[in-house]
Amino acid sequence: MNKALLKLIKFIKDGNIEINKRVYLIDSLGIKSREYNQIKKECLDTIKERLYFIEYLERPVEDEYEVFVNFEELSYLFQEMPLKIKEKFDIIIYIIKKNLDVGILSPNNFYFNKEVFMKHRYKSAPLEEIMAFINTYPFDKSEEELHLSTKEKAIYDELKEVSSASFKYIDSITFGHFLINKYFLSKMPNITAKDAKLTLQGFKKCGLSESVVNELATYLSSLISKVKEKKVTIAKSSSNIKPMLSNKELKMLNRELSYYYDFDHNKVIRAISLDEEMHIINIMQKLGFKREVMIDILNKFKKISNIDPFVLYVRLYDKYKNTRGSEGVLKELEGYFQNMFICDEEEYAINKMCFIDTFNKLLSLTDDDYEYEFNYAKSLKR
Question: Which end of the chain has the least Cβ crowding within 10 Å, N or C?
Answer without folding.
Answer: N
